[in-house]
Specification:
By secondary structure, this protein is α/β, with parallel strands linked by helices. It has one domain. Helices cover 16% and strands 39% of the residues. The protein has 2 helices and 5 strands; from the N terminus they run βαβββαβ. Strands 1, 2, 3, 4 and 5 form a 5-stranded mixed beta sheet that branches. Helix 2 links the parallel strand 4 and strand 5. It is globular. The two termini are 24 Å apart. The relative contact order is 0.23.
């Protein structure tokens, strides 16, 4: 596979004064049909990275918006042991 591009979101994280502990940087590889790929250091919101035997909720924000749109339900999901994964679309939240 050819690596065509690498984005470093960690640099963006270090510029922020306060980043909630639920956010972390994770290397994500996106493979394309033409055998090329892109590596992105994505900023991920995952309340239970080890998974949940109860279930997982995936939140996709509106436009404009970010993972913060779901901040009011996170404590409820966590209290019941339900995993939450928040997605930030490009240009929103901490996503470059």
């Amino acid at each position: 596979m050819n690596r065509i591009k690498s984005l470093d979101s960690q640099k963006l994280l270090t510029k922020l004064e306060k980043v909630p502990s639920i956010l972390r940087t994770q290397r994500v590889r996106i493979d394309f049909f033409d055998r090329q790929s892109i590596d992105v250091d994505a900023i991920v919101q995952d309340s239970l990275p080890g998974g949940s035997c109860i279930g997982t909720v995936v939140g996709c924000h509106g436009t404009p918006g970010s993972h913060n749109d779901f901040k009011y339900i996170l404590s409820y999901l966590h209290a019941y042991g339900i995993r939450f994964i928040g997605i930030n679309f490009p240009g929103q939240g901490y996503t470059p």
